[in-house]
Design a protein that fits this description.
nine-stranded mixed β-sheet, Rossmann fold, alpha/beta, binds adenosine-5'-diphosphate, six-stranded parallel β-sheet
Amino acid sequence: MEIFHISAECYPVAKVGGLADVVGALPKYQNKAGNDVRVVMPCYDTKFKNENDWEYVHWGHVSLGNFNFPFSILKETTDKLGFELYLVEIPDLFNRKEVYGYQDDIERFLSFQIATLDWIIGRDQVPDVINCHDHHTGLIPFMMLYSHKYYRLRETPSMITIHNGLYQGQFGFDKLYYLPEFDLAHVNVLEWNNCINSLAVGIKCAWAVTTVSPSYLDEINTFANGLESLFNMVRYKSIGILNGIDVEVWDPAKDPMLKKNYTVKNLNKGKQDNKAHLCELFNLDPDKPLFSFIGRLLEEKGGDLLPHAALLALSENYKQINILILGSGNTLIENHLNSLLADYQGNYNTYIGYNEELAHLIYAGSDFLLMPSRVEPCGLNQMYSLRYGTVPIVRRTGGLKDTVIDFGDDGNGICHDQASVGDICYSIQRGISLYNDKKKMNEIRTIGMKTDHSWERVCQEYLEIYNLIISKK
Ligand code: ADP
């Protein structure tokens, strides 16, 4: 089967969050399962782009109304990622360091989608299935169905995978003329709450909709930033598939970013060595339990709760615990977290920014990983921490609910129900008790490390859905 994944991110080429991890791993396992898998993404100015070799395979022009942009398609030449990788190069729009956050993001991702389809219809054969990811690719299923120039793709099944339904890529109808000419009888398909909503359009037009965990699919029927009723309407073609993790990249036995590699057999020693290194780097106390957080410092992740929770937990247990925060996002939250530094030196530290290598070391060297998320479509951090023998402390929501069970119920972590400072602090107290019960702590860590979250099984679920929609042609 020839499968195209179209995405704004893909690890290790460009990563902002979990979307990149998924698009960098799922295609590899689909390829191993005997398919021809290609990933298409924008060509940003990233380290991976600059350090690898590329072959030009196509040239063209995108028109967004009166704006014209030349584009080219570059193919990675070594196949080192385990799938074919194609970059859509539109220098004016993508030759920048960041993936998102520019005023012309609508123009950028619309051009990317149009250039991708222009290239795909120019090829000899059409793909068997096109898997779009998040709102940056949400207009593709619409254009495949209704744009005159893509009529060859009308019968090609498309699927949209929702990694985060909070971000939807809305824009006004004043930009309708950006879209390639389409059958105007279907213009209403573009509309949601008086604007063009890229994610809603993808959900309406794709032949199947997947979310990245079953619980998230249940939750978005009642909480989806305005798309609740739409999710209810398309329930018949929706399914939640829990993400896997790339167990080759995330392997404590081989991970080159760790101070010391380890397996479940020598987990105590291995984790101790990584913790000692981490504590040295951040001036923390290696003899005390280490509670860490990795992620975007935003309300959806419960980031706004962290400063107060850290303050309370540290003051109640002064010098009995360590807290380490790695992340960036909301400046107020960043500043608030940094304001605690002076009072809790030796037991508390922050790294405001993005650092892949440090994230790996924190998964290995921490005792607990905090995830007090308000919304968590799947969450990968808890799965990485389980694999590295770190006990996740999570709020029961979305994918966290599907992957972490409280140790009181013979599970692998610590769970709480509310995204609140009180619940976080209570869970930290339970963590301290667990840490002091060495035998139990070791047992929970071992359960976590032995859990199978690999993509092999998950990959089959994706293939089943592709086959189902192909059979409907
Ligand atoms: P989301 O995609 O919503 O941000 P996920 O849990 O799905 O959350 O994925 C987060 C991914 O991004 C993980 O691989 C995590 O390690 C990584 N990550 C998040 N913030 C940082 C950071 N500041 N530095 C390094 N890695 C980070």
